[in-house]
Amino acid sequence: MALKNRRRSPMPEVDLVPMMDVLMTVLTFFIIISMTLRGQQVAGINLPSPEDSAGEMGSSLTAPTLVVGLNDQQQIVIENQPVLVAELAEAMQQHYSQHPDGVVLLKADKTLTYDQVANLLQTMRDIGGDRVSLAITP
């Protein structure tokens, strides 16, 4: 009889509706905030699009430019001649001394890995090339 008189304690119930309401409110908040931050514009500024300058790729670089190539054998090329890193350093320093506002344009072969191009960019930065642009095919 002792077993029949013993009452089972009721199983606690978890009400998920209030928790879902809170989660939906937080999600809605983050969606609204992300939508407002994504499209910030500065008044009075019209940015160019790639279509605007499609035929003007060469003229978009107004500063004097030194073109440096990196071919698929990882050779540094200046004026169609393979050069060593020391010669690259000399050419860059001479270019920057003659043209303080000049830039260096790096044309790397598309078969090279990112690491190979990044290594040359790091070398150029160490030389003093703080204005190096990467060329792409339009």
General description of the model:
About 7% of the residues have low confidence. Strands 3-2-1-4-5 form a five-stranded mixed sheet, covered by helices on one side. It is an alpha/beta fold. Helix content is 39%, strand content 15%. It is built from four helices and five strands. It has a domain of 73 residues: Nucleotidyltransferase, domain 5 (2-Layer Sandwich).
The parts where pLDDT drops under 50 for at least 5 residues are 52-60
| Helical content class | 25-40%
Helix-strand pattern, N to C? HHEEEHEHE
CATH topology grouping of the domain at 62-134: Nucleotidyltransferase, domain 5
What is the CATH class name of the domain at 62-134? Alpha Beta
Number of helices: 4
Which term fits the overall shape? Answer: elongated
Query: Gap between N and C termini, in Å?
Result: 90 Å
Oligomer: single chain
Largest sheet: 5 strands, mixed
Name given to the CATH architecture of the domain at 62-134: 2-Layer Sandwich
Radius of gyration: 31 Å
Structural class: alpha/beta
Strand tally is 5
Strand order of the largest sheet: 3-2-1-4-5
- Average pLDDT figure: 78
Strand content bin: 15-25%
Topology, element by element:
Layout: H1 2-5, H2 17-38, E1 65-70, E2 76-78, E3 81-83, H3 85-98, E4 103-108, H4 114-127, E5 132-134
Parallel strand pairs: 1-4, 4-5
Antiparallel strand pairs: 1-2, 2-3
List the main descriptive attributes of the protein structure presented here.
4 helices; 15% strand; alpha/beta; elongated; 39% helix; Nucleotidyltransferase, domain 5; five-stranded mixed beta sheet; 138 residues
